[in-house]
Write a structure and sequence with these properties.
- The protein is of the alpha+beta class.
- The protein folds into 2 domains: 200 residues, Pathogenesis-related Protein p14a, CATH 3.40.33.10; 132 residues, no CATH class.
- 18% of the residues lie in helices and 32% in strands.
- The chain contains 6 helices and 21 strands.
- The strands form 5 sheets. Strands 6-8-9-7-1-2-12 form a 7-stranded mixed β-sheet, sandwiched between helices. A 6-stranded mixed β-sheet has the order 5-10-14-19-16-18, with no helix packed on it. Strands 17-15-20-21 form a 4-stranded mixed β-sheet, with no helix packed on it.
- A hairpin with an 8-residue loop joins strand 20 and strand 21.
- Helix 1 runs parallel beside helix 4, helix 2 packs across helix 3 and helix 2 packs across helix 6.
- The longest helix is centred in the first third of the chain and has 17 residues.
- The protein is globular.
Length: 342
């Protein structure tokens, strides 16, 4: 699966182009199908997928996410624009719209969303985010979740408005645009270019949350080379990114991460943290493998711990995080969480 994340606030602030892994596909039309061509059915299905993924998180319950018609319209049009733009070209994913076609709106995400919302920002929004996948439906949702940067809006507390589109929906809603019947990625039903538009709201406050929590099943592998910037430059096949969000706007000062099998075999991890300072680390995280997110895609208080090798299949793992912020205050810890691999 190929994928793209863009963050705008509301004008373009940062761009991430990347690829990620995928899994089995379903849409409103059932497993392995081409996805529903009804926006209401498709968005309800993708919202259910997202809710199921977010329910695997521990800590404070994440706020409910709701769909928004303007975000859905912007997502559908941009998915269709991409499909049209790739006709006769090497397929690619593009957060902008640098060329004109029947579904062109604007090269900027904020401008496209405002156009779909009658020319105004969605009330209460301080940031727009966009994920794009070469796949569609459940395969796209699962693939985006098993990444570093693409999971950011899916787990972020304030990303509370959501809209989904793909090329099948664009073909159905804009027949005069002549969106192609087949996609270049080889997906079932001539569908792909799943586009997720997000509106981050100014409320609620941030509370401790983390993934995976006890009882969760996590994939064994994440292909790090599929994202750019590469989260783990020294390796491609690594373990699934573990993710924690702490209620702070300060930089991390110290971080202790422990990850081990039920038999006590410890797993080294690479940390990627939001903020402006690399923290001192211990446990299964080393300073040599810790980096601050220089792309600015993580907020202060956000942390990923990525196992430096794929996890073993059919195995139980326990992980935990503790630490301090600049000034010396302790972070609320991620208590020991036990998850399994399939």
């Amino acid at each position: 699966m190929r994928s793209v994340l863009i963050i705008a606030a509301p004008a373009l602030a940062a761009v991430l182009t990347a690829c990620g892994g995928g899994s089995s596909s379903s849409g409103g039309s059932g497993p392995g199908g081409g996805g529903s061509t009804d926006r209401g059915i498709a968005n309800s299905a993708r919202l259910a997928d997202l809710t199921a993924l977010r329910s695997q998180c521990g800590g404070a319950a994440l706020p409910a996410v709701t769909t928004h018609e303007a975000l859905t319209t912007a997502a559908i049009k941009h998915a269709g624009w991409q499909a049209l733009d790739d006709v006769g070209n090497v397929p690619s994913l593009n957060h902008g719209e640098p060329t004109d076609n029947a579904l062109f709106v604007h090269t900027g995400i904020g401008q496209r969303i405002r156009a779909a919302n009658g020319g105004a920002d969605i009330p209460g929004t301080y940031q727009y985010l966009e994920d794009i996948s070469s796949q569609h439906s459940l395969a796209a949702m699962n693939g985006l979740w098993n990444t570093v940067y693409h999971r950011v809006p899916m787990l972020r507390h304030r990303a509370r408005r959501f809209g989904y589109g793909d090329m099948a929906l664009a073909r159905s809603e804009f027949p005069a645009a002549n969106v192609p019947a087949e996609d270049p990625w080889g997906n079932p039903g001539g569908n792909g270019y799943a586009t997720l538009e997000w509106a981050a709201q100014t409320t609620p406050g941030i509370a401790l949350s983390y993934w995976p929590s006890t009882g969760t099943t996590a994939p064994t592998t994440f292909l790090s080379d599929s994202e750019s910037p590469d989260p783990v430059p020294s390796a491609n096949a690594v373990g699934p990114p573990l993710h924690a969000v702490f209620p702070t706007t300060a930089d991390f000062a110290t971080i202790v991460v422990d990850l081990a099998t039920s038999g006590g075999v410890h797993v080294p991890v690479r940390l990627i943290v939001g903020g402006g300072t690399d923290p001192a680390t211990s446990g299964d995280a080393s300073n040599a493998q810790t980096v601050t997110d220089v792309e600015g895609l993580l907020d202060p208080g956000e942390l990923f711990a990525i196992p430096l090798a794929p996890l073993a299949a059919g195995t139980s793992y326990t992980w935990s995080v503790s630490g301090t912020i600049t000034g010396g205050s302790a972070l609320p810890p991620v208590p020991a969480q036990t998850f399994t691999t399939p």
